[in-house]
Each structure stands twice: as structure tokens, then as C-alpha cells.
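#data-curation
PF: Archiving a pair of folding outputs for the training set. Convention for this channel: one message per protein, sequence first, C-alpha cells after, nothing in between. First:
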Amino acid sequence: MRLVSFVAGASSCYGVVKNDRIIDLSKRMKFSSLREMIGAGALGEAGKLAATIEADLPLEGTRLLPPIPDPGKIICVGLNYHDHVAETGRKLTEKPALFNRFAESQIGHLQPMIKPLESDQLDYEGELAIVIGKAGRRINVADAMDYVAGYSCYNDGSVRDWQYHTTQFMSGKNFVGTGAFGPWLVTADEIADPTVLRLTTRLNGTVMQTATVDMMITSIPAQIAYISTFIPLQPGDVIVTGTPGGVGSKRKPPIFMKQGDTIEVEIDQVGTLRNTIENER
């Protein structure tokens, strides 16, 4: 299934994309959000409903939210592809480098990424996001994929000069409107082997990044196991799994996103996340 969160009228809703239309599950199920539905283990129920119900509204023209608009945690993995480590000049760490992003910084598919007033250094980072499907602590690597509800595209937009104010990344990773997430969540049963997925980032149609998931330094199961060791993972938590080489700030000359640009993150079997860039008003 392709699960979406969206706006209908003044309400935040969730549903299933079927034949380029949306089945509104929020008016047929007792859960207030997609995160709550996942946490209740109701993906099977949602699938049965989607198989029998006609869609309610067109996908085109509907304002999509981040698939999980209200995650309890967004944990991002830095420096997780060898070519990205090399282009940054940083040393490879024994354990994954982690930082957090906050829900308020996120936007959905086709919504503008916002270049803040304070900087001209808004950079792209195309990434695969995973959404946790059930609670767990100290999850074994061998069992970790059983905790994945699904996959989505993520653009971890980074305000580079603010990111490097100190050795801590948080300020450059949390400007409003810089974390693009979507267009939807593809449930894990639709993707037999996520390691074969290819990620491609395009800026104004030009390929800037490309890699397959098996090129990660710390695999998805290892990320889940490591993170869940120090903090319990909950349904709807998001892990953003790292970006490959080719970021704009390390190009010569550097390339940063600007007003009017279009940035796309495409992942095989998942979809294409597309956003334009707007200056903050």
C-alpha cells in the first residue's frame, strides 16, 4: 500500500493511494492519525478496506502532508555512505553518527522547501526514510526488519553555514520547511529487499546524487539495533538513513538551492518526492 497523510478542508486526514486517487481511511477507521493506526497494528485492516472501497478524492490537487506528520522521534544518520564521508573530509566513525530533526521542520510532497532569511547555503540530501511499525528496545539485528512499517523518500535539507557553527549539526538541520518527506509511505510488504533500492537526487533535472541502499556503511537493521539500544523505538518514529556523495556544498564551485529551483528525490519502488524552493518571506 501507499499510505498518505493529507489535508481535506480544515482537517488532517490519512488514507491509501489507489489508482491515483485517495481512499480516506480517517473517516472509516477509529484512529486519529496514520501514526496511531500503525501503532495499533491495523495495516492489515487498512489493506482490506482499500481492496473493497472506491476512492474518495483525486491525488492530484490534494495537499499532501509528510506521511507521518507527528512522529515522536526523527533520528537522522549522518556520514553513512563512503563517498559522502570522503567528500566531507571527515573520518569514518566506528558507530553511526546521529542527530535529530524536529517535526516542525518537515513539509510534504510538492510543498515548497524554504530557504531561510539567514543563509544562502540551503543544500539537498536525498535519503531513504524508514518508519517504525512497532515498539522495541534493544532490538536484535536479525529481527530489526520486522519493526519496519514502510519506506519513504526524504530530503534532509541542510543550512550548511548554520550546520557548521559548531560540531553539533542540529541548528543547520531544523530550519522551518527544510525537511521534505514523502510523497507517501510504501508498506514494507511491497518491498522484498530494500538493499537493492536505488536513490537518485535531481536538481532542476540534473542528477546530483545516486547510490543503492546496499552501499550504506551502517545497514538499516544495524541502525535500528543501535538506536533502540539507547532509546525505545515507537510506532511512527522515523529514521532517515543517510545521504550519498554529491551534496552541493562539496562541489567546486558549491551549488546551493535557490528560489525557483526544483529538487527531486527518487527511490525505486517507493516514488519521487518533488519540491520547489522558495525564499522565506
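PF: Second:
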Amino acid sequence: MSPRPRTRIQRKNMQAILDAALEVFSQHGFRGATLDQIAEQAGLSKPNLLYYFASKEAIHVTLLTGLMDTWLDPLRELDPAGDPVEEILGYIRRKLEMSRDFPRESRLFANEVLQGAPRMQAAIVEQLKPLVDQKAGTIRDWIAAGRIAALDPHHLIFTIWATTQHYADFDIQVRLVLGQDDPIASAEAHLTTFFRRALTPGG
């Protein structure tokens, strides 16, 4: 028998819990967060929260599972038939936009990985790794055809992650050092120049 569809109120409460948990987890990490903090942030009682999620871990896994799919979308868009440099620069722009629009989600994932990814190892191996390997193969083909400079494909992807997600994970530091409320535009200009030079054969 199929489960009964959730009511509007149930869907609203579940979303309130997930929104609250994202805020709490991104600030305190999994270990520092408590169900009491999440319930208070969501405006619900702890027993009401436990009606929807059996544990703090269940909430955390639900958030991370949804985040993984969203996080992979920009890499999925890398088109083997496109211009290699422009495809990679487009990926960089999409990652910067995610850092601007989803900083809490980025910090949530970063905290999970820093703790050894105890709740996400399977997803990393089963979802992230095959996609990264596939796109690294595309980059390797572009290199073999002489269309971009010879760079290690996996480490190129890691470098893109490091330089784009920095603006989410270290948002306050970036803003204070630059004295800018929105550093993404200048970051995009810099990274576009930097990677275009690095990717251009003989550049």
C-alpha cells in the first residue's frame, strides 16, 4: 500500500524543519547542533519535530542527500561538444553563483567532509565519483586533441571547487578583507582571467 500523501501543513512543517536545520548545522556542524536548537529555530516543539524525523542524523542525511544532487548539476552541464575553455569557464561561473546563492549549503557539505563524511561516503563514491571521472575523461579528450592545456583533469576540477567554494565557506573573511558586500562579480572576473590563461594551450 502506498503511503498517504502528506497534508499541506505536514509539508510546511517538514520544510520548516529542514530550513531550520540547514541554518543550525551550517553554524554549528553536526556535532554541535542539537534537536532543541533545530526545533526552536523551526518554531516547533521537539516532540513535533520528532514526529517528522526520528533523529538529528535523519534530518542531516535528508539535507545532504538533496544537496548532493543540487551540487552536481553544474558539473553535469559540462558539454563535451562545446568549446572546452568556454565550457569550463561556464562551470566556474555556475559554481560561483552557487557559492553566492547557497552559502549555508556549501558550509554544511564542507563540515560533513571535514568530519570524514560519515553520513555521505556512499553518496560520494556512488554519485560524485562517477560523474567526476566522466567529466575528467571529457577534459582528457580535450587535452589529447590539443584544445586546452595539458592539466591533470581531476586536480583541475578540485582547483575549481577550491577557488569557487571558498567564497561561500569563507564568506565573512572575504567580505572583510575586500570591504565588499558582494565579492562574486570581482571573483568571477579574476577567475575567468586566471583559468582562461591556464587553459589556453601555450598561454
